[in-house]
Structures are given as C-alpha cells and as structure tokens.
C-alpha cells in the first residue's frame, strides 16, 4: 500500500521534487500546499506557483494559506493524517501541531550540506561564497530553522560554469532522488537521523536589494563574478555606471588593468570594469534598465556607445 504524502513547496526546485513523488507508485500525494499566488513583473500579473501548476495538472488538492498557523487549511491538513509531510523550498514555517500529525515522519529537502547554509537561499550563498562543493540534506523538521536531525545527504560538485539557475536544476534532481531513496527506509525504520553540530551552523538569508548591488570599489573581481553567478538569472546582481543601472547576468575575471571602479576596457567585443583588487571584471551578458537581456556585443552596438574608458561606477 502506498504511503500518503502532504507536500509543501513553491519553486522550481519544489516542482521537481513533487514530480518525483507523483511518479513513484510507492507514494500517494493527497494534498499540495504552496505559497499564495503573487503578482509578477512590471504588469503585476498574478501567476500560479510552479508546484500549484503541477498539482492541478494531476488533479491534486491545493492549499495556499497566507499563513498556516491557525488557518482553516491547517485543520484540514491535520485531518488527513498523512504518513509523510514533505517540504522543499516552501517558504513558511510548519506549525508543530501539523508536524506531529505525520504518522511516519515530517521531513525537509534542504539544498545544502547541513549545518552549513541554514535558511532561505542556500544555493545562492554557496555560489556567492565561491564554494566548490555543495549538496542536499534530508532532515527531520523541527520548530527551529533547518535545525532538525539529518537523515541523509548527497554531495554535488559546483562547476565553474554554474550559476544559480543551473545549480538549482542539478540540485533539484539530486534532492528528488535522495528523497525517494530515503523515504522507504524511514517507513521501515531503517533510516535514523543524526543531530547537527550547531557550532558549525552558517546562515543563508533571503536575497535583498543591498546584496544585489555590485560595488567595484569594495569587492574583488572574484567576489563580483561569484555574486553575479549566485544571483543569475534571478534576481540578478546590478551596478550603476554613470548613473545608468545595469543588471549583470554573466561575467568573468580579466587581467589587472585600469582604475578601480572605472570602465577600463572597451573594444568591439569586450567591456570591462576594474574591481577593488585591481583586476578587471569582463561583462558578458547584461540587461540595461528597461531593456531585455543582451550579450555585451549587442550592448556595445547600442547603449554601450555612450560609455568611454574612464566612465565611473557609482560607489554604494
């Protein structure tokens, strides 16, 4: 008999994990809980979350409370008496009363090697910090953020070519596969959790506007490139050159040249700004304010013509 599952998730990462549960005959997804649909883009069009779209395609019940605690939806979910509660990039804390309703286990698929990178943006921060390796942890859910006992982990190498988009896609597959391998062992009592060492814990807080700002006067070339990788394709790191805001989606480290914070290289195909350590950041894919993403060559054929070597970025 299939184990019943209530799934909590919102993003693309969540969608991949949910798809694995739906396709596995060992599990019966009886409900999907997602964040409420939010307005997106300049036109503020309200879009369904990724997990909601998948759930509706499979005719699964969908719950979207603004806040689970004390909601009518929570009472309905508890009444389901599911074998498993599974979260993956959900975006809300699960109340303890709901966690305790799971007959077998309430578990989370977290995109880091815990206790490293507890929090909302572990994949982004691994890239921002220039890590060479990351992974996925399956852990018991507790009231404290990502602090439950770890049941299983799997590691993945971060390639130099990875950005947040590509690493999210890779880790979603790793997380899905690890979850589907771990849950049967929990059902039989074979899998056990190991406490985390809280002294080794680091945080991965939400991405905010201040983090998204590139400061060539304070950040090294490596730090700038890692920040770009960690925030690409969304939400995107940005800088201001002569007061024009430009989102930078791909970049690489060049040679040492020019004055810190200034446009130091401009040719038909290269556009580089010198960072705090004296090395140049070569821009590859970018998006000027109000425009679509473009290659640096396309930018240089258009708006890039207005900038000359020596143009300054705004110090933040």
Question: What's this model, at a glance?
Answer:
It catalyses: L-methionyl-tRNA(fMet) + (6R)-10-formyltetrahydrofolate = N-formyl-L-methionyl-tRNA(fMet) + (6S)-5,6,7,8-tetrahydrofolate + H(+). With 316 residues, the protein is α/β, with parallel strands linked by helices. The chain is built from nine helices and 15 strands.
Task: Walk me through what this model shows.
This is Methionyl-tRNA formyltransferase. The chain is an alpha/beta fold and 316 residues long. The protein folds into two domains: 3-200, 3-Layer(aba) Sandwich (Rossmann fold), CATH 3.40.50.170; 209-306, Roll (Methionyl-tRNA Fmet Formyltransferase, Chain A, domain 2), CATH 3.10.25. Helices cover 27% and strands 28% of the residues. It contains nine helices and 15 strands. The strands form three sheets. It has a seven-stranded mixed sheet, sandwiched between helices. Strands 10, 11, 12, 13, 14 and 15 form a six-stranded antiparallel sheet that branches. The chain has a two-stranded antiparallel sheet with strand order 3-4. α1 packs parallel to α2 (50-57). The model has no long low-confidence stretch (mean pLDDT 95).
Essential attributes:
316 residues; Fmt; Methionyl-tRNA Fmet Formyltransferase, Chain A, domain 2; 2 domains; 9 helices; Rossmann fold; alpha/beta
Overall CATH architecture of the largest domain: 3-Layer(aba) Sandwich
Order of helices and strands: EHEEEHEHEHEHEEHHHEEEEEEH
Radius of gyration: 22 Å
CATH homologous superfamily title of the largest domain: Formyl transferase, N-terminal domain
Number of strands: 15
Compute the average pLDDT. 95
**Into which percentage range does the β-strand content fall?**
25-35%
What is the 3D shape?
A: elongated
List low-confidence stretches: none
Number of domains: 2
Protein name: Methionyl-tRNA formyltransferase
Binding site for (6S)-5,6,7,8-tetrahydrofolate: 112-115
Family: Belongs to the Fmt family.
Domain Formyl transferase C-terminal: 206-303
């Amino acid at each position: 008999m299939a184990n019943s599952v209530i799934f909590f998730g919102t993003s693309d990462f969540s969608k991949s994990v949910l798809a694995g549960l739906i396709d596995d005959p060992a599990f019966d997804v009886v409900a999907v809980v997602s964040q409420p649909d939010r307005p997106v883009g300049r036109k503020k069009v309200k879009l369904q979350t990724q997990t909601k779209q998948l759930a509706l395609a499979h005719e699964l019940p969908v719950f979207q409370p603004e806040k689970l605690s004390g909601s009518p939806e929570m009472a309905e979910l508890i009444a389901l008496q599911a074998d498993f509660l599974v979260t993956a990039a959900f975006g809300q804390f699960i109340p303890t009363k709901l966690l305790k309703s799971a007959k077998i286990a309430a578990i989370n698929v977290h995109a880091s090697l815990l206790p490293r990178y507890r929090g909302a943006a572990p994949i982004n921060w691994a890239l921002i910090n220039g890590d060479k390796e990351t992974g996925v942890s399956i852990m018991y859910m507790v009231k404290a953020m990502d602090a439950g006992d770890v049941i299983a982990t799997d590691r993945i190498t971060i390639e130099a070519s990875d950005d947040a988009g590509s690493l999210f896609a890779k880790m979603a597959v790793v997380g899905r596969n690890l979850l589907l391998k771990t849950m049967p062992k929990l059902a039989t009592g074979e899998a056990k959790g190991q406490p985390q060492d809280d002294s080794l814990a680091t945080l991965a807080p939400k991405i905010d506007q201040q983090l998204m700002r590139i400061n060539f006067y304070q950040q090294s070339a490596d730090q700038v490139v890692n920040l770009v990788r960690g925030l690409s394709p969304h939400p995107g790191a940005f800088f201001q050159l002569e007061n024009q805001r430009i989102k930078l989606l791909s970049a690489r480290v060049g040679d040492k040249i020019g004055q810190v914070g200034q446009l130091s290289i401009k040719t038909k195909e290269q556009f580089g700004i010198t960072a705090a350590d004296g090395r140049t950041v070569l821009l590859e894919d970018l998006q000027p304010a109000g425009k679509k993403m473009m290659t640096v060559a396309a930018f240089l054929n258009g708006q890039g013509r207005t900038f000359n070597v020596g143009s300054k970025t705004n110090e933040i």
